[in-house]
Every structure is written in C-alpha cells, then in structure tokens.
Amino acid sequence: MEETAAAVAAEPAAEKATSYRYWVRESTGDAAPVPAPRKLDAADIAANPAPATLGSAWNKAGTWEEKNLNSWANSRIKDLLGSLGPLEFSTGKASVYEVSKCSGDAFLVIVRNKKRVGYTYELSLKFKGEWLIKEENKKIKGHLEIPEFSFGELEDLEVSVRLSDDKDLSSDEKSQICKDMKTFLSPIQKKLREFEEELKGR
C-alpha cells in the first residue's frame, strides 16, 4: 500500500517536471534577457523606410483609385498630331494643320498597388493640299477621320478621308487623293505610340 501511494504521489511531480510551463520557468535562468522597448528615432526611420505605394497620400494601401487624365491627354494628342510633317505624293503634297475633333477619355487606375492606364478616343484632323489635276495645280481641303480606338489597338487603326469640296473632281481623281491621304496613317500611328508611352509613364 505504501509503495502504491508513493507511486501515485510521484506521478504529478513527473508530469509537472515535463510540462511546458515547468520547462519555461526552469529554463529562464539561462535564457537571454527580454529586450526592453525603445522608441524609434529619425535615424531608425530613415534606415527602414516604408515600402513605396502608388496613388494619392490617402491611399496608403494602394487599393482601388482612378484618376481622370482627359485634360492632359487631349492637349498631348493635339500637340503630337499637330506636329505631323507634310507628305509629298507623285502628283501633289498635303499637310495636317489642325486637330478639329479629339473626343474621348484617358485614365489611370491603381489596383492593389499596381498601375494600369487606358484610353478611348475618336479623332478628326483637318488637312490641306495641292494636286496636279488636268495640268493644273488644284488646292484641296478635307478631313482625316479616325474612328474610335483604344489603348493597345494602334495596329488596327483606321483612317478615312472626307473631302470638303470635290464637285470638280472625277471619281478617279477623288480616289487618288484619298489613297494619297491614307498614307498619313503610318505617321499618325507613330505619334499615337508616343502618346501611349507617355501615358504609361504618368
């Protein structure tokens, strides 16, 4: 009976000795001291700057934020296309002298601290030129119409030609002038690619 009682009494002691609380309490004597809290100074903050976030000051988490870039985009498109140089053709020459229509939207969106840009525009450019028609230099004006296009669609850009006064022209003459003016498509695409690159850098 005495042996049984002694064994029963020893069980809690053994369990106590192997428990997590017992081990932590007994090992704290040899453990490293607990670090004392210390207030960060300016040097500490400068050495460990917060990760950069995109967007406005209020949007520290970099969650959804959209910025309207219409004012900048409209002005930039007009500047770029207004600087198109003149082109010469086999029987004439022409130049774009005004962006008469620049309708659309441009925007910057920040989602999860990632930046995305986009736009949708529709354009009309005024041109003037001079062609040799029936041994006479004839001055002609018109519009280059560019239907709605969006970011990343410049390879599929289309341009149509509308002549302001073509009553004295034959169908063949009008076709030739329209064919000549459509060669402005490539330099227009080049200018709009510049616009896209600048937009991505905003």
Automatic annotation (TrEMBL):
One of its GO terms (biological process) is protein folding. Residues 66-202 form the Activator of Hsp90 ATPase AHSA1-like N-terminal domain. One of its GO terms (cellular component) is cytosol. Coiled coil: none annotated. GO terms for molecular function: ATPase activator activity; protein-folding chaperone binding. Gene3D superfamilies: Activator of Hsp90 ATPase Aha1, N-terminal domain (3.15.10.20). It comes from the Eukaryota. Signal peptide: none annotated. PANTHER family: HEAT SHOCK PROTEIN 90 HSP90 CO-CHAPERONE AHA-1, LD43819P. Belongs to the AHA1 family. This is Activator of Hsp90 ATPase AHSA1-like N-terminal domain-containing protein. It comes from Digitaria exilis.
